[in-house]
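so ive been stuck on this for like two days lol. basically i have the seq below and the ligand is thiamine diphosphate, smiles is in there too. i just want the complex predicted, nothing fancy, no docking runs or whatever. if the output looks off dont worry ill sanity check it later, just need somthing to start from for the group meeting slides
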Amino acid sequence: MVNASWSDRYRLMVLMRRFEEACLTGVASKAVHGELHTAIGQEAIAVALSEHIRADDSLTSTHRSHLHAIAKGIPLRPLLAEIFEKKTGMCGGFGGHMHLFDRERRFSTTGIVGASLPVALGHAYASKLRGSDAVAFAVVGDGSVNSGGFHETMNMASVLGLGLVVIIENNEWAISVPFSAASATATLAERAVAYAVPGERVDGLDVQATSDAIGRAVAHARTDGPAIVEAMCYRFRGHYEGDLDLYRDQGEKSLRTETKDPLVLARAFLSDGILDPVLLDELEQSASAEIDELLASVLLDEQPDPASARDHVFTSGLAPFEGIPS
Amino acid sequence: MTITEIAPRNINISQAVAEGLRLEMEADEKVLVIGEDVATQGGVFGSTRGLLKAFGPQRVLDTPISEMAFTGMAVGLAMDGYRPVIEIMFVDFIGVCLEQVYNAIAKIPYMSGGRVDMPVVIKTAGGNIGSAAQHSQTLWGLFAHLPGLRVVAPSNPYDSKGMMAAAVRSNDPVVFIEHKGLLLKRASDFTFGASVPKEAYDVPLGSAAIVRPGSDLTIATLSGSVRHAVAAAEVAAGQGIDVEVIDLRSIVPLDWNTVCESVGRTRSLLVVDEDYLGFGLSGELITGVIERLGMGAMDYVGRHGNPGVPVPAALSLEQAIVPDAESILAAIMRAGAAR
Ligand SMILES: Cc1ncc(C[n+]2csc(CCOP(=O)(O)OP(=O)(O)O)c2C)c(N)n1
């Protein structure tokens, strides 16, 4: 759906924001008892991605993955239910928000920074074995790129000519360490040269620009080999919910979140003669209503049965400590 | 087991493993072999020899020295319906890619609530051959400690082929640890499991084998130590101690029935383990037998293995650390004296 209409685009951006906000309520209500990372402020990149990713493409993501799951077409209900630790979750409550798996949709995430890239390489190789032009997408943070897995994956993908698109969401921070203190290169896109692949930096707050850049990378990957897109953005919340976020300048943070909100920017752009503000209101309301309804429904679901906690260690059913009290 | 009675071929263990792989690759086109020097070279120990010629460079892939990348690749391939066999040349190299093994391959079946299986074989060579601290470990205890991995280590040619076949067919991930000291040994070097049929067969994972029956003392061991234990048992027999030698074959799962049945008869258990003794197979085995048979089931319990020392370089030092027939015999005599 490369020619996504602006109304669909805008609604999806709002829906993604509302989805993350619904997750935040789970932390407050303790329905989510572990840590939670949201991608509030990074919606434009996920929407742009959704415009290029095909059902048969794969997507591997990270600890900050909810919006990528939405972009990949993971049904919202089992996604939210998994984040909310419910039996009805996409992994039955065994995975939780950082460990999401949907085999049919070729989607997975990992909580280990940098570890999703080699998995994407496997999907890319599978496409090659099948003679398919399906692409493997890996969306990572600017922190991932400094891990050895990034280097090994990029080199191998390039030498094997695999269809891999690496989208780096450069939100300028890896927990408390700023990008400027962690990267030897001024941009991450320029690292592409080392692997003899195209690399491009784009304003990740701008849906159109990001969609165009991802479109170029995907076109390259479907026929020629890997490509890198570095999408610039800013993390609006703390690294995780509960992070005091004292390492960032609060003045700058307020300025960035108030004046550089991708939703506000999109609305301002669209209101200027592209879409009727009344329609924009309606789109916002409809997205909000959808998420409100979803959240209310998911909250009614049950947690998994504690008696099932030892299930699934081996899919064969092997249970090495069966019968031994522990 | 009549199948083993066919006239023996004098192949080595590497050839037996390669033959097991070849037959599984013939039977299932989803089986892939990926690793360093596995294709053109056929593996540094020859255990993938002939596969490139038979199946071509897509299914038998030589990789750059990028264990993290190609181990993770197995995860994506498994999700896409393939059955990758990845070779970590020496088990000691697992440190650079353990992440993908224990956080991804081992845990994805569980984290996905049983929705995604990981039919991956991590094929690797362990054991001492005089290569010192960074190329001599066995490490099965390390893998066995981590939930979600089957861990096996064959001791003879027949099992090496059959267990590789079973590992490839397994929908659970399997860490398949060959012993470098055995890989180039020929069938004629073995008094057990020497006969390797040409056709496909499998040896079910998770069953131990009694290699030498005996009535006084149960030795539970595996991999390269089995033949040393058998040799030591023969000498001990001449000195009045009748030792039963069990080849565990599989560490996860352990075959508790075979071990407990034997210990129930001998009331004496000696675990011989080339791996580090601390927090590993020997402690697990002894505890598990007590959990199953009770505190009063044994008159003797002992273990003999690497006392938590990096494997040294000099032969004189290595012999002081790694179990061999002589040291196992000494352990048997200690057990005999203690009973
Ligand atoms: C291998 C590894 N090291 C450290 C961590 C802890 N950790 C989780 S997220 C994170 C920062 C990641 O930064 P980035 O990749 O830029 O993603 P962002 O959180 O900014 O989206 C760190 C250090 C981890 N999960 N995995």
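Residues 9-197 of chain B form a domain with the Rossmann fold fold (CATH 3.40.50.970). Chain B touches chain A through 51 residues (CB under 8 Å).
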